[in-house]
Design brief:
The complex is a heterodimer. By secondary structure, chain A is α+β, with helices and mostly antiparallel strands. Helix content of chain A is 38%, strand content 19%. In chain A, the strands form 6 sheets. Chain A has a 5-stranded mixed β-sheet with strand order 1-2-5-4-3. A 3-stranded antiparallel β-sheet of chain A has the order 8-9-10.
Chain lengths: 560, 172
């Protein structure tokens, strides 16, 4: 489907409400529609034309346009087209029809829009708070331009967001926010009948640090990569790369080819260490610590290699707008090849051993099933989508950096279970090694960054996406004044994949929940609060913290 | 005093740690986990990561303290039995790092918890984490040398301190 066909079909559907269209290189389509027609446009794109929903961004444009700019992004993966549907909501009445009833995957994004920008999604089925902390006032929206960090209210204790009602006959098992070993805090409320999971609710965003606010208030274009790298400590390069590519696209900066190749090498090195890391963590979740130790031992030389090449174990400090900071010297090729050869040899042995391991099979097969329909509805990405038979991979669908000149494939599994997602990652690792080898062999000579003489003018837009180890990482930049973006929107892949957890864990037994959650490669958690069930009456209640402390003291006094 | 004595006496050979992320990007968490794996092998020092704060002697905190995690981290701290030590791992936990002035971050871990030891770095290398813990427990000597430095424009003037004064600073 070309940009012309998309524009034409949308024109037929919403008519006069399609106010403006603009294209960029036949791969980006920016539309402006009337707020009244936004649900129709989303329906046409998502349900009729079978586009994939990406994310929603809200921008404060009250100073220039007297309105909030709401943008829904869609992707036509087979055709290499990203579509941005802009709508301006007048500042006097910040309400817009929610697209969530039409596009289920938009549920979180519209809740976030309400939190940070104060634009009400009318008709949203679950308009609870998502991103902001429990004690944040309802009427304070941090991404509005007139909000300054100094306005932050003092923390208040004892506030907790209500979770969903527990289904009739079920028991709630709280999971999180803190749990053994490592990773991030997040809370799941898992509803069980006996051992079987019947539903769940989620409260996350404990790690919300206000990065997008920093990006459009304090930082200049070349300061943001430093922050972008620290969105995620595992796939930091992905974020700085996607951000830089979005700015480059907006400003029309041509990146030297050698820089594209260097970026590709580091993106694949990151996938390599991330997949090794995930395999270890997943093994650890199911109690297979030998595999955990083995994969992390295999992974460590990648970190040393990254340090040698970039100066930091996490490939930090490489990307800037216009290219990369450091070249890969020719004498480093041997070091890289040595690390790759070792991993390839050990990984082949490991990948062959997995299907024959009865413990792994028993824990991974037929658990955490995600159907292809559900995967499409929540807009799952990366190995999570490819494990459910959905062939999407940004490297192939929307080629960036040097991927258009390299040979690669996206392994797909039809199973939809945790095993399928594991097999996808197992198959991707040798492909990453092959891509690094190809990129090093074909890397052209030349400069590694473009010289940028002119200021970037305001009002330009750029979209960039990078296939992170977990799926598509999407960045949108709207340029602004004073050498900084007016808006920088980031959508990490776990944002979409976490919404699939509810469907995945339904029907599984409680003991499989950690590996189900782990199988999308986010963070997992274990039970840390207590639920008391009165067996005779069948009634259930969750003990409050005070009650728990009280019972502990009683136990200490009586010595039990 | 008794607490310090207990820590030096009881913990060095078998420090059980509980690790909490209070808003980190995962960078430090991965390095903390890396310390347990074969190349660094923290268990040879008797250091073990445990699954419940109630089993722990030490709390490892990484990341800037976000508003949402603060009450939960506080509860984790309360659950660790005395005597306990708290380590702030990474630049963010040390002082809020680059997030120190965002709306959802309260600052470093010491805004909410009494932090005993700091291991800065973004992220600190696994060796740095091991070294930090070993130094705190008295397994290795402290390697610091206090100097007096004054920077004016681009010029830096460095002075050696008198022995007595230097020791006062180094003990701090």
């Amino acid at each position: 489907m070309t940009v012309e066909t998309i524009t034409e079909r949308l024109g037929q559907r919403v008519g006069e409400a399609l106010l403006d269209t603009r294209t960029h290189k036949e791969t980006r389509l920016y539309l402006t529609v009337d707020p009244a027609a936004v649900v129709d446009a989303a329906d046409e794109l998502f349900n009729r034309m079978q586009a994939r929903y990406v994310i929603t961004a809200a921008t404060d444009q009250r100073r220039d346009h007297g309105a909030y700019l709401i943008t829904h992004f869609f992707s036509f993966d087979a055709d290499d087209v990203y579509v941005a549907v802009h709508t301006r909501v007048p500042e006097g009445n910040p309400r817009i029809d929610a697209i969530t009833p039409t596009v289920p995957g938009a549920g979180w994004a519209e809740r976030e829009m309400r939190d940070v920008m104060g634009v009400e999604p009318v008709g949203h089925p679950d308009p609870r708070r998502l991103v902001l902390p429990d004690d944040w006032p309802e009427d304070l929206h941090p991404l509005r331009c007139d909000f300054s960090t100094a306005d932050s209210p003092a923390p208040v204790t004892g506030m907790e967001m209500p979770m969903k009602d527990i289904p009739e006959g079920a028991v709630m098992v709280p999971v999180g926010p803190y749990f053994p070993t490592q990773h991030e805090p997040e809370s799941f409320a898992v509803f069980v009948e006996g051992e079987t999971v019947v539903g769940s609710d989620y409260r996350g965003f404990y790690n919300h640090r206000g990065i997008e606010k920093l990006g459009c208030s304090d930082l200049t274009y070349n300061q943001i990569p430093f922050v972008a790298e620290r969105i995620c400590g595992i796939c930091g390069f992905v974020h700085s790369c996607a951000y830089c590519m979005a700015v480059e696209e907006a400003a029309g900066i041509e990146v030297p080819r050698r820089a594209d190749y260097i970026r590709t090498v580091f993106l694949e090195l990151e996938r390599l260490h991330s997949h090794l890391l995930w395999t270890g963590v997943a093994a650890h979740i199911i109690g297979f610590d030998t595999l955990f130790m083995q994969t992390w031992r295999m992974r460590e030389p990648v970190m040393w290699l990254c340090e040698k090449l970039t100066g930091n174990r996490k490939t930090y400090g490489m990307n800037i707008v216009g290219g990369v900071r450091r070249d890969i010297p020719d004498d480093a090729h041997d070091d890289i090849e040595r690390v790759l050869a070792d991993i390839e040899r050990e990984w082949t042995a490991l990948a062959e051993a997995v299907p024959g391991d009865r413990t792994l099979m028993a824990r991974l097969r037929d658990v955490g099933y995600l159907s292809p329909e559900e995967a499409r509805n929540v807009c799952a990405l990366g190995p999570t989508a490819r494990g459910s038979g959905k062939r999407i991979d940004v490297r192939i669908d929307h080629p960036y950096a040097a991927y258009d000149e390299l040979e690669l494939s996206a392994p797909v599994e039809e199973g939809g279970d945790t095993l399928a997602r594991t097999l996808v990652r197992l198959a991707e690792t040798p492909i990453a090694i092959s891509i690094i080898r190809q990129a090093l062999a074909r890397m052209p000579d030349g400069p590694v960054r473009a010289e940028i003489d002119e200021d970037i003018s305001p009002g330009l837009e750029g979209i960039a996406a990078v296939e992170a180890p977990r799926g598509e990482s999407f960045h949108w930049v709207l340029t602004g004044e004073n050498n900084r973006p007016a808006r920088w929107r980031v959508r990490a892949p776990t944002y979409a994949n976490l919404q699939a957890i509810d469907a995945m864990i339904k029907g599984d037994v409680l003991a499989d929940v950690p590996i189900d959650i782990g199988s999308i490669d986010p963070c997992y958690s274990c039970t840390d609060r207590m639920t008391v069930i009165d067996r005779r009456s069948g009634q259930m209640r969750v003990m409050t913290r005070e009650e728990m402390l009280g019972s502990r003291q009683t136990a200490e006094h009586t010595g039990t | 005093m008794i607490r310090d004595w207990l820590i030096q006496k009881v913990l060095p050979r078998s420090l059980w740690v509980y690790h909490t992320n209070c808003g980190a990007c995962n960078g430090c968490d991965i390095e903390v986990l890396d310390v347990l794996t074969p190349y660094y092998d923290a268990e040879r020092f008797g250091i073990k990561v445990v699954g419940s704060p109630r089993h722990a002697d030490a709390l490892l905190v990484s990341g800037p303290m976000t508003r949402q995690t603060a009450p939960a981290v506080r509860r984790v701290y309360e659950a660790v039995p005395d005597p306990k030590v708290v380590f702030a791992i990474g630049s963010c936990a040390t002082g809020g790092g680059m997030w120190h002035d965002t709306y959802n971050v309260l600052g470093g871990a010491d805004q909410v918890l009494p932090v005993d030891f700091y291991v800065p770095g973004c992220p600190p290398r696994p060796e740095a984490i091991l070294h930090g813990i070993a130094t705190a427990l008295g397994l290795t000597p402290k390697e610091v040398h206090a100097l007096h430095a004054i920077q004016e424009a681009d010029e830096v003037e460095i002075e050696e301190l008198a022995e007595e004064q230097r020791l006062v600073h180094e003990r701090e």
